[in-house]
Design a protein that fits this description.
The protein has 66 residues and is an alpha+beta fold. It has one helix and three strands; from the N terminus they run E-E-E-H. The protein has one helix at residues 42-62, and strands at 17-18, 29-32, 38-41. The chain has a three-stranded antiparallel β-sheet with strand order 1-2-3. The longest helix is centred in the last third of the chain and has 21 residues, at 42-62. The protein is globular. The model has no long low-confidence stretch (mean pLDDT 79).
């Protein structure tokens, strides 16, 4: 079983990542396969993505109909 995750590398913009196991764990350190940049653990990446998603949705919820 292989896991495919597309995460953009902030350094080189590649979306190919390296995984040491066929299944990703929350404690796995994610590394860009193209440039070797360390993106952090899977748990920290998910947390950052959730915060970014919440920031995107917050202004839309605050609008009022006139």
């Amino acid at each position: 079983m292989t896991v495919q995750v597309e995460l953009p590398c902030p350094k080189c913009k590649s979306t190919k990542m390296k995984f040491e196991r066929p299944e990703i764990r929350e404690t796995d350190i994610i590394t860009c396969a193209a440039c070797g940049h360390n993106l952090g653990t899977m748990a920290s990446i998910r947390e950052k993505m959730n915060k970014a998603y919440q920031r995107l949705n917050r202004p839309a919820a605050g609008r009022k109909l006139q």
